[in-house]
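User: I'm preparing a small set of examples for a lab meeting where we compare how different chains pack in three dimensions. I only have the primary sequence for this one, and I'd like the structure in token form so I can line it up with the others. Please keep the answer compact; I'll paste it straight into my notes.
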Amino acid sequence: MTSIFDDIRSAFSKGNNALHQLIFINVVVFAVLIILRTVMTLSGSGGMFAYLMTFLSMPSNLQLFAFRFWTIITYFFTHLEFFHILFNMLNLYWFGMLIREYLGDKRLVNLYVLGGLAGGLIYLVSYNTIPYLQLRAEGSFMMGASGSVIAIMVAAATLLPNYTFNLILIGPIRIKYIALVMVLLSISGATGGNAGGNIAHLGGAILGFLYVRQLQRGSDWGRPLQAVLGFFRGIFQRRSPLKVAYKNPNRPYTSSASSSMTGTSNIPGNPSQLEIDQILDKISVSGYESLTKEEKQKLFKASQK
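Assistant: Understood. Below is the structure token output for the 305-residue chain.
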């Protein structure tokens, strides 16, 4: 048991570990709910467990949502079915690795949270405005990270459309086609038994596409979210007064090199390999967030070559 708590502490104490933290939170919540459901059902309190879930899953009823507004966040960390969480976490890991590598941990968190919020909002609006769904809205609740995950999938496909995954029994396939299939399946399922979940997928997909497009134009929609998260991190974490200096003797990064790159940012064309190497060195020393707007744009151009 001590080892488990040590693993938990280690997962949340490390920097640049957002992907594993998101997966870890989902898995822990799933495990707790499954144990709780089993215990309560065996003790004859299954109805109480179902009532408890209404405080975590998102209702389609506007009046109920007004009293449980927090569910627009808790729903995308909540799963009760094994295959539901399995496929969500696998897709989160595969596509989240790409987002983490090219955009950094903070933007991965932005996409996960904003995708979930977008999915929840379109779910709520759809079930209260579309006649077909209004007839099925009574007692309808939504849970699961699918909206957040498809936001990350579409974002990765927008950023790196020709990146290839090797799928079992299929072979190599570009991720833009994987994302397209997921969107089409969500559209086709919008009138089925899981209409709410599929509508949330579409909200997440739209958010993922627009987020990357705006990021490529120099606008990060996740800045308000990071400001809120930074506020809470500042409350619960102490900042170390020590500063660590790093120097790579083979290809050192210096502030002058960064300045020279910034000074030539308006020159058209793709960046040189030397510039990309210097940017990557800077990321390894100071993290993605230390890059200037021009350096990020150069990294975008290089990733699309």
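A couple of notes for your slides: Residues 244-303 form one domain. The chain has two domains: 2-231, 244-303.

User: Perfect, thanks.
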